[in-house]
Amino acid sequence: MIVEIDCGNTSIKWRVVAADSALVTASGAVAGLNDLQSVLIQYKGQCLFCRICSVRGDESDQRLAQMLLQTLEVRAVFAKSSQTLAGVVNGYKTAQQLGVDRWLALVAAHRLYKDNCLVIDCGTAVTADYVSREGMHLGGVIAPGIKLLQDVLHHRTTLPQVSTIAVPEIANNTECAISAGISSMFGGFIQQQLGCAEQKFSDGYTLVLTGGDAHLVQQEWHPAVLHKDLVFNGLALACPYSEHGSDA
Predict the structure, then answer these.
(1) For this structure, is 101 an active site residue?
(2) Lowest CB count within 10 Å: 4, 53, 99, 181, which one?
(3) Does residue 247 sit within a domain?
């Protein structure tokens, strides 16, 4: 079996796949390394390989690698942004500056849909990346995600925290006004990206959504493809087991 880990800014997503078929046999999300260790300890002696996408930096990655070596007795392989992968050419002048999660997601979208793609990842940050059907990454944008907007407004003012997102409209109480305002800002960002995609891809494109808040976009903009495991799909392309089996 293979353990796959996606370390985002807020949570750590994990899943277990069969080495011979890539069938997902277990998955979940945890808050931190201690919780992850508690989950993965059951797979000690069974794991052949571990591949990781992480945006948390070198120090955090070193702690994760050490924990996995102790817990699963395997050396983890971390995906890195590269100049090319699976037929996609990185659009950044310095390839390694492109967030690895964004890179893996757009590469996976290109492999899956064989079309011009606008890939929107709705996580702690919301990102949009453009990739042509020929495999050229055209670049992208980054903005605060919904929960980050909520947190910043709450912590930098005396306004209350809200946990839901309402349809943008004029509200008659503070909580609904905040919720509708954040939804309006988020929706404006998405709408602008769709307009940009229509200009770049005059012959059509596929809107690919991933991330924890992606369902909010899918509810408002159709057609769209919701793919919660997009980063994991790209991770398998970047770190195939067959190339690293001797290290596992």
Answers:
(1) yes
(2) 181
(3) no
Q: Is 127 annotated as a binding residue?
A: no
Q: Is 181 annotated as a binding residue?
A: no
Domain boundary among 78, 109, 125: 78
pLDDT mean across residues, the chain: 92
Strand runs labelled E in 149-230: 206-210, 225-226
The answer to whether the annotation marks 6 as part of a ligand binding site is: yes
- Number of domains into which the chain is organized: 2
Half-sphere exposure of 178 (CA within 13 A, CB side): 18
Domain-located, residue 33 = yes
Q: Of the residues 101, 115, 151, 213, which is catalytic?
A: 101
Are residues 66 and 95 located together in one domain of the fold? Answer: no
Residue 39 to residue 18: CA distance in whole angstroms? 17
Q: Which of 25, 59, 78 is at the close of a domain?
A: 78
- pLDDT greater than 90 at residue 139: yes
